[in-house]
Amino acid sequence: MGSQAPIVIVGAGQAGVQIAESLRQQGYDGGLLLVGEEPHPPYQRPPLSKKWLTEPGASQALSLRGPEALSRRRIELRLDTRVLAIDRAGSRLQLAGGEELRYGQLALATGARPRTLSLPGAQLEGVLALRTIGDSLRIGAAIRRCAAEQRPLVVIGGGFIGLEVAAGARKLGAEVTVLEGLPRLMSRVAAPIVSEAFERVHRAHGVNLVLGAQVAELVGHEGRVQAVRCADGREFPAGAVVVGIGVAADDALAAAAGLACERGIVVDECARSSDPAIVAAGDCSARRLADGRLLRLESVHNAVEQGQSAAAALMGHERPFRSTPWFWSDQYDVKLQMVGLSHGFDQVVTRGDLERPAFSAFYFRAGRLLAVDSLSRVQDHMKSKRLLDAGLSPTPAQAADANFDLQSVLQQARPATADGA
Ligand SMILES: Cc1cc2nc3c(=O)[nH]c(=O)nc-3n(C[C@H](O)[C@H](O)[C@H](O)COP(=O)(O)OP(=O)(O)OC[C@H]3O[C@@H](n4cnc5c(N)ncnc54)[C@H](O)[C@@H]3O)c2cc1C
Predict the structure, then answer these.
(1) Could you tell me if the CB of 327 is within 6 A of ligand 1?
(2) Does the structure show a pLDDT above 60 at 144?
(3) Measuring from atom 34 of ligand 1, which residue has the nearest CA?
(4) Domains recognised in the chain with CATH numbers
(5) Which of 183, 192, 303, 323 is the most buried (most CB within 10 A)?
(6) Which three-class secondary structure string do you get for the chain?
(7) Which is the closest atom of ligand 1 to the Cα of 283?
(8) pLDDT band for position 57 (cuts 50, 70, 90)
(9) Does the beta carbon of 253 lie inside 6 Å of ligand 1?
(10) Residue 415: its pLDDT value, please?
């Protein structure tokens, strides 16, 4: 072994905790240190733009794993501690404040940071982004102020976070304008039929939704944001602005240490970086697929799945990324659940009620199921997930037929699998 130094995990978020716990589950008995720069014990981020935004409570309610639970598994937690640099040759980390830390093996789980606008006025007071507990509390307070002063909240970006904030702000009684640069909502991940359904839902809840809006400037008065101006001269008054234009992988530490990074720390299917002694998982990583493409996912499922692979890799085992990616978003009373990756689809069919909306969109390529987006159709989501995990596909006609039980595809496949194995 040669070294008694612990395995150190940088980043105490979803992926970091998963790596630590999976190491213990997989029988690792040595020293284990989880280092995070935030002051809070590991917590869940999804509620920050959902229920927590409108009904914040004690931060413990968001807890992913409390210090006691971690210490029971002999996982040492160091909070408020930023890692500044990795010395790979010396197997050391340099911490803010000057301290150095030796590691036996290293895992990076540094997450992502919200993208910022590089436009005039982007630094004005009242321009906010959402990643942390503190951000969510600030945005919640800003929404309440907007509602009380009858000033609109302007959300820049019609992706998941922007739209969830818009829904929360409507719930709290604020007037809301959403400015989206592209012609439809969530266009990076959803088919037009899903975008249009959410467009109707937000408009029905009174959101002023502006598509194709090219934001040019944030206008301020005495240092505080007052309005958002678009390139075509339109100006939207703002009591506060939430910028939700996506995140950038936090790969600076890895890049400075010479690890391969391409908009994320490049890892293989087993979460190994270009240095086989260092693994990376979660939002900070970009996974190299078998066909050479790089895939970046920002989701709880991805952090958990890659965290398990990373722990296995640290134990010297190969555990490739296994299950089908999935994601969810809550907006008003609509629950969106997405499973699979729709990239490259050539056909979409739907089942259910498009108007309510309570339907599922099935994405196919060459007649094979790639992904399913379900809006308030939990059963469709669960059955589709099982199908995709098993590599099975209904035909497009079966998927579109609400009377066809998706489960039957699995049931029909079972005897064949047993015989053919
Ligand atoms: C508002 C919001 C809503 C979301 N909603 C959903 C949802 O509905 N469904 C879903 O699947 N996903 C959702 N996500 C995404 C999901 O939360 C992330 O994909 C997940 O948290 C990624 O986990 P991670 O561990 O990779 O990164 P993080 O959770 O970001 O953790 C990384 C940690 O590393 C720390 N760190 C970074 N650099 C250093 C350093 N140098 N030294 C020490 N510590 C460092 C960071 O401070 C951070 O605490 C949401 C995210 C946000 C922000």
Answers:
(1) yes
(2) yes
(3) 11
(4) 7-113+248-314 (3.50.50.60), 127-245 (3.50.50.60), 333-420 (3.30.390.30)
(5) 303
(6) CCCCCCEEEECCCHHHHHHHHHHHHCCCCCCEEEECCCCCCCECCHHHHCHHHHCCCCHHHHECCCHHHHHHCCCEEECCCCEEEEECCCCEEEECCCCEEECCEEEECCCEEECCCCCCCCCCECEECCCCHHHHHHHHHHHHHHHHHCCCEEEECCCHHHHHHHHHHHHCCCCEEEEECCCCCCCCCCCHHHHHHHHHHHHHCCCEEEECCCEEEEEEECCEEEEEEECCCCEEECCEEEECCCEEECCHHHHHCCCCECCCEEECCCCECCCCCEEECHHHEEEECCCCCEECCCCHHHHHHHHHHHHHHHCCCCCCCCCCCEEEEEECCEEEEEEECCCCCCEEEEEEECCCCEEEEEEEECCEEEEEEEECCHHHHHHHHHHHHCCCCCCHHHHHCCCCCCHHHHHHHHHHHHHHC
(7) 26
(8) confident
(9) yes
(10) 60
